[in-house]
């Protein structure tokens, strides 16, 4: 049990960081795609 616990913890932390990075990437992509649309809408 003591031997497996660190592995489970590392896997959990790794998975959480991966998901967080994915969410941040999607959020940045969303902002990047949305900004020109707002600028064009204001210009029109």
Automatic annotation (TrEMBL):
<dbReference type="GO" id="GO:0016491">
    <property type="term" value="F:oxidoreductase activity"/>
</dbReference>
<protein>
    <submittedName>
        <fullName>Cytochrome c oxidase subunit CcoN</fullName>
        <ecNumber>1.9.3.1</ecNumber>
    </submittedName>
</protein>
<keyword id="KW-0812">Transmembrane</keyword>
<keyword id="KW-0560">Oxidoreductase</keyword>
<keyword id="KW-1133">Transmembrane helix</keyword>
<dbReference type="InterPro" id="IPR036927">
    <property type="entry name" value="Cyt_c_oxase-like_su1_sf"/>
</dbReference>
<keyword id="KW-0472">Membrane</keyword>
<feature type="transmembrane region" description="Helical">
    <location>
        <begin position="6"/>
        <end position="30"/>
    </location>
</feature>
């Amino acid at each position: 049990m003591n031997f497996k616990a660190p592995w489970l913890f590392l896997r959990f932390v790794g998975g959480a960081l991966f998901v967080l990075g994915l969410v941040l990437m999607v959020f940045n992509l969303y902002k990047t795609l949305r900004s020109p649309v707002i600028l064009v809408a204001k210009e029109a």
